Amino acid sequence: MLFRSILAVSQFTLLADIRRGRRPSFTRAAHPESAAQSFEAFCGLLQSESLEVETGRFGANMEVRLVNDGPVTIVVETVGGRVT
User: Fold this and answer.
1) pLDDT averaged over the chain?
2) Which one of 11, 37, 47, 73 is the catalytic residue?
3) What average pLDDT score do residues 5-12 get?
4) CATH superfamily membership of 5-83
């Protein structure tokens, strides 16, 4: 199936640090201005491939209905069974 349009929804993607317990730290996440620029660049790349791109408003609360296999991916690195 070939798609000609896409709905690009900005959401935050974080690399969580869990070395200090069960609550992930997100202190190394990108600043909103940098994230917005990355999202705009991504949408521009899609448009350069002749796709029609629709977006919401960056940083806004949006209600989107979709089927997804989880909204967050957390990478856990271990050495010898211990979180590094």
Assistant:
1) 78
2) 11
3) 78
4) D-tyrosyl-tRNA(Tyr) deacylase (3.50.80.10)
In one letter, which amino acid is 72? Answer: V
78 is catalytic: no
Residue 37 is a catalytic residue: no
Residue 47 falls in the annotated catalytic set: no
- The structure's pTM equals 0.59
Residue type, 75: V
pLDDT at 68 over 60: no
- The one catalytic residue in 13, 37, 47, 73 is 13
Check whether 10 has a pLDDT greater than 80. Answer: no
Distances (CA, A) of 75 to 12, 15, 17, 52, 84: 15, 7, 9, 32, 11
For 68, half-sphere exposure in the C-beta direction (CA atoms, 13 angstrom radius) is 8
